[in-house]
Amino acid sequence: MAGKLECRFYEAEFPEPDEVVMVQVRRIADMGAYVSLLEYNNQEGMVLLSELSKRRIRSVSKLIRVGQMQPVMVIRVDKDKGYIDLSKRRVSPEDIEACQSRFAKSKAVHSIMRHVAAQSDKSLEFLCEQVAWPLYRKYPHAHDAFKQYVNEGTNIFLDAGLDAEAIAPIKDNLEIQITRRLTATLMRVRSKVEVSCFEYEGIDAVRESLMCGFKAQTTEDIPLDIKLIAPPLYAIAVTCRDKELGVKTVEAAMALIQTAIESKQGVFGIKSKPELVGDDERDKPEAESGDESGSDSGSEDQDETMGNANFDEAELLAKTKGVKSDDEDDK
Length: 331
Fold this sequence. Notes:
By secondary structure, this protein is an alpha+beta fold. The protein has helices at 60-63, 93-120, 124-138, 142-152, 156-159, 164-182, 203-212, 243-263, 279-282, 295-306, 313-320, 326-329, and strands at 20-28, 32-37, 43-48, 69-78, 83-87, 187-196, 224-230, 233-240, 267-277, 323-325. The strands form two sheets. The protein has a five-stranded mixed β-barrel with strand order 1-2-3-5-4. Strands 9-6-8-7-10 form a five-stranded mixed sheet. Helix 7 packs antiparallel against helix 8 (243-263).
């Protein structure tokens, strides 16, 4: 049964030269390190000693350890003899990030395929041939196809031209596993910014600039909200299932607000970049979480930054409509 559940991630049996792949170190020898190519059914490769680092090697154990997972670049592939030469020193930080992201997605796809194969008594290679590999050809990544199926209900099986008769016995189970594994929990991404204006327009310029931030909300599935903490501090947040998309939405809102307020000679500053907020912080008043702007200095900041000593927080909230105060969430 174990043999039926073993298969490479991708259709190609061997990686291509210059491809960055994920490996696990198996043993270290005088010539270098022997590794297993995790995406290619644990085929053996070797990272030569000269390819471990650009610097002089004083201790191999400090560079690489048995059991460690590493992104490495493919230098040469001898398909006849099965030799694969690899390099660690040629991998850039950008390559590492891209490889780790691709490997995580590929591993998730492979896990789904393996689970369905085990339950349906089919070989893993059969499922990869019928489902995963055609999706890799049709989409940037098979994982993208699965996410599109979960989020948009796209018929990826028909879209990729899969053999309907061949996958009919496993289609229901496959859909269940894809939905179960890829339906993410809701998460909240938040950033804090300072927006102020000392010019004649004052609070009106701030209000209009904040409202511009709502243009970053491209779908109702990713609601964007801007909350007043204490002038000039505001929180921009989205609730979504995709962290990357949430970060992009918040960053887009920040860029729109910055452009708008600076066009009115106002000031924009980032207090914290977009980040995940835990459940214990979602409904907690911002001023209680250790921000520099507290209740004692709120009125003073308001007078200085808004240019209108008689303009109170309630009026700001009324004018900004969708821009809410954290106090509202606690009621």
